[in-house]
Design brief:
The chain is α+β, with helices and mostly antiparallel strands. The protein has 13 helices and 20 strands. Helix content is about 25%, strand content about 10%. α2 packs antiparallel against α3.
C-alpha cells in the first residue's frame, strides 16, 4: 500500500513558522524578483511538501481499471456494462461513518442552531423508522440503534443522500477549524452561533467576518500594502480540501483494491469481490471457512447457527469487523451499502468521460453584491422553493396523499402557501435572494407556526416536510447556479445543470416539439420525458447511486460493479456512507 502522511500539526506549525521567519529569498525564474521579500512587493511562496492526510482517511493511489459488471446481469437491465476508466488518486474513509460520528454532528448542530433554527436539526436526524417491517419485530432497533452505546461503533443508517452530503460538508469545516486552532491562527470558540461559526469558504474570503475569534498569532502579511496580520490562504497549503461523498468510479475502484492484485501493470485476475477468489469464505489457516463479509447467506439466514455464527452479526456489525481490503478499507462489501455522489442513469457508462467519470455536475458560483464582492454570510435559512411547491401540489404530493378532505382553515393555508411560494420564486428569479428568504421565513412564522389549533396537525406535517428542502444554512455563503448568459463564450459547457447531459436532455430525446424551451417546461422536477418518472420508471435527477452489498443482501450484491439507486430524500436500514477527499498534487506523494 502506498505510503501516506497523516495530519501532524507540529509539522504544519513548523512550515508556518518557517514562512514567517524566512530571511533568505528565492528568486522567481521568470521575473528575477525575490520571493517572500517585503521590499519587492511581498509575494509569498511558502515551503510545501505534499497534502496531509485528514482524520480517518486512507490514501487511495489512482490508476486505470475496468469499471462495471463482474457478475452475471441477473436483472438484465444492462446498467453497468464494463468500460475502462482512470481514477485519480484520492482519499477515502477507512470505515463507514459510525453512529457515534453522526451523533457528534447532531450535537454540534444542536449547540449552534437548536434554539433559533430547529428545522436544521430536524433535517439532519436519521430516520430510525427505516427498521420497521410489517411482519417483523424491529422496535428495539428503532429505539436503540442510533444512540445506545452498544451500537456506537456500528455504521449509521437511515441517512438519506442529502443528509450524508451535509455531514461531509460539516466535517470539512470542523477539521479545518481544528487545524487553525491547533496552530494558533484561530482561538477556540466556546459558544459558536448560527451566524458566527467557522465556515471554510467564508474564512477564505478575507472580507467576510463571523468565523469565530481570530487569534493575535495569525500569519504575518509581508505585503507593503497589507500590513499587520492576515488569515491563512489557499496558497499556504494549511487547509485541507473538502470532505465529500466518493464518486461511483472512486468507490468501485477503491473497493476492488487492485493494488494488491497486480504485477507491474498487469492485473493478474479481474476480481469478482474486494478479495481474491470467487467465494465468500476465507482460506486463512487461523480462520479457515469463516465468512469474510457481513451479508445474508441464504433465505432466512442472517447470522448462522448458534455456537458458530457464520458472520457474527444478525444486522450490521462494528465498522472494523472482518478483514480490510488491500487499500486498508473495511467493509467495502457487506455490512451496509453506501451512498456515492453520482446521479443514476442506466447508460451512464456509455456517456461519461473516461477520466474521473461522474454524472451529476451542477455548476454554481457565489452570489455577489452590487460592488462585485462576494455577499456576506447567510443570516436566513435557504430552501428549495420550487421543490417545496412540487412536493405540496404534485399528483403524488402532500395534499394528494391526505386521507381527509381539507377544512376551510386548511384550504386557506394551502392558498397562502402557494401564493407565497409563487412570490418567493419570482423574487429568486429576479436575483432578489435576500427578499425571497425573508418573505418565506415570514410565511413560516405567520402561517405554519402561528396557526390556530384547528390546523395544528397539518401545519406540523408541512413544517416537517419543508425541513427536508433546506439547501443552505445561516453561517454559509450564498451560492447560485451559473447562467447560460455567463457562459456564452465557453466551449466546454453552457448550462449549469449537466445531470441530464446525453441522457434525458433535449438533445437525447425524440419529440415533435422542436422548441427546447417548451420541452423544458413539460419536465417536472428534473424528470425527462425519456424515463416518464412515476409511470414507467423511477429514474429522475434525484435518483442517486448506492454501491455495495449489505447485511440484508445476498452475495450477488457484494460485487463492487453492482449498482442500485434510490431517491436522494429516502433512506434505508441497510444504506450508510463514508466520506472521500480529493488528492491535490502528485498522485504518488513525496517520500
Amino acid at each position: 500500500m502506498i505510503k501516506q502522511k497523516s495530519i501532524s500539526f507540529f509539522g504544519v506549525l513548523a512550515v508556518v513558522l518557517m514562512m514567517i521567519s524566512c530571511t533568505s529569498h528565492d528568486q522567481s525564474p521568470t521575473t528575477g524578483w525575490n520571493y517572500n521579500d517585503p521590499e519587492n512587493g511581498g509575494f509569498e511562496v511558502i515551503p510545501y511538501e505534499e497534502q496531509e492526510t485528514g482524520p480517518g482517511l486512507v490514501l487511495i493511489e489512482g490508476g486505470t481499471f475496468v469499471m462495471g459488471r463482474t457478475e452475471q446481469d441477473i436483472h438484465y437491465d444492462w446498467s453497468n456494462q464494463p468500460h475502462r476508466t482512470t481514477v485519480p488518486t484520492f482519499y477515502m474513509d477507512m470505515t463507514e461513518v459510525r453512529n457515534i460520528d453522526y451523533i457528534e454532528y447532531l450535537h454540534w448542530l444542536k449547540r449552534v442552531y437548536g434554539d433559533e433554527n430547529p428545522r436544521i436539526i430536524q433535517k439532519a436526524l436519521p430516520d430510525s423508522l427505516v427498521w420497521r417491517e410489517k411482519t417483523s419485530y424491529n422496535e428495539p432497533y428503532v429505539d436503540y440503534y442510533l444512540r445506545h452505546p452498544a451500537y456506537r461503533d456500528y455504521p449509521v443508517v437511515g441517512v438519506n443522500w442529502l443528509q450524508a452530503r451535509d455531514y461531509c460538508s460539516w466535517r470539512s469545516d470542523r477539521v479545518n477549524e481544528f487545524i487553525l486552532v491547533s496552530i494558533g491562527i484561530l482561538n477556540y470558540q466556546e459558544s459558536p452561533t448560527s451566524d458566527n461559526h467557522f465556515n471554510t469558504d467564508a474564512y477564505l474570503v478575507s472580507s467576510i467576518n463571523g468565523i469565530g475569534e481570530e487569534s493575535d498569532k495569525q500569519l504575518i502579511d509581508i505585503s507593503p500594502n497589507g500590513g499587520g496580520l492576515r488569515r491563512a490562504r489557499m496558497e499556504d497549503g494549511i487547509l485541507l480540501p473538502k470532505y465529500r461523498l466518493p464518486t461511483e468510479a472512486e468507490w468501485e475502484y477503491a473497493a476492488l483494491g487492485l493494488i494488491g492484485n497486480t504485477m507491474y501493470e498487469r492485473v493478474v485476475e479481474r476480481r469478482l469481490y474486494p478479495w481474491n477468489g470467487h467465494i465468500t469464505r476465507t482460506d486463512d489457516s487461523d480462520n479457515y471457512g469463516d465468512m469474510v463479509a457481513n451479508f445474508r447467506r441464504g433465505r432466512g439466514d442472517y447470522m448462522g447457527v448458534a455456537g458458530h455464527l457464520n458472520d457474527a452479526a444478525d444486522i450490521t456489525a462494528p465498522v472494523y469487523a472482518y478483514w480490510p481490503n488491500d487499500y486498508g478499507l473495511y467493509n467495502m462489501a457487506g455490512n451496509v451499502a453506501e451512498w456515492v455522489m453520482d446521479v443514476y442513469r442506466p447508460l451512464s457508462f456509455e456517456d461519461m468521460e473516461s477520466h474521473n467519470s461522474f454524472r451529476g455536475n451542477v455548476y454554481k458560483t457565489y452570489v455577489r453584491d452590487n460592488t462585485g464582492a462576494i455577499a456576506d454570510k447567510l443570516y436566513n435559512t435557504i430552501y428549495d422553493y420550487e421543490g417545496i411547491r412540487t412536493w405540496l401540489n404534485s399528483d403524488n404530493g402532500f395534499y394528494a396523499n391526505l386521507s381527509n378532505e381539507l377544512d376551510d382553515d386548511e384550504v386557506k393555508l394551502q392558498e397562502d402557501l402557494n401564493n407565497t411560494l409563487d412570490e418567493v420564486i419570482e423574487l429568486q428569479n429576479e436575483r432578489r435572494y435576500e427578499d425571497a428568504a425573508i418573505a418565506f421565513d415570514d410565511m413560516l412564522q405567520d402561517k405554519i407556526y402561528g396557526n390556530p389549533s384547528s390546523t395544528v396537525y397539518i401545519a406540523a406535517e408541512i413544517a416537517k416536510g419543508i425541513s427536508d428542502f433546506i439547501v443552505a444554512k445561516p453561517g454559509e455563503l450564498r451560492q447560485r447556479e451559473v447562467t447560460i448568459e455567463e457562459n456564452l463564450s465557453r466551449r466546454n459547457y453552457r448550462k449549469s445543470n449537466n445531470i441530464n447531459y446525453l441522457d434525458g436532455d433535449y438533445a437525447s430525446n425524440y419529440s415533435q416539439d422542436t422548441d427546447w424551451r417548451n420541452w423544458q417546461d413539460k419536465t417536472i422536477s428534473g424528470t425527462s420525458k425519456m424515463y416518464d418518472y412515476g409511470k414507467t420508471s423511477m429514474i429522475n435527477d434525484k435518483a442517486r447511486v448506492y454501491k455495495g452489498g449489505s447485511w440484508k443482501d445476498g452475495a450477488y450484491w457484494l460485487s463492487p460493479g453492482a449498482r442500485r439507486f434510490l431517491d436522494e430524500r429516502q433512506a434505508k436500514s441497510f444504506i450508510g456512507f463514508r466520506c472521500a477527499m480529493t488528492r491535490v498534487g502528485s498522485p504518488v506523494g513525496n517520500y
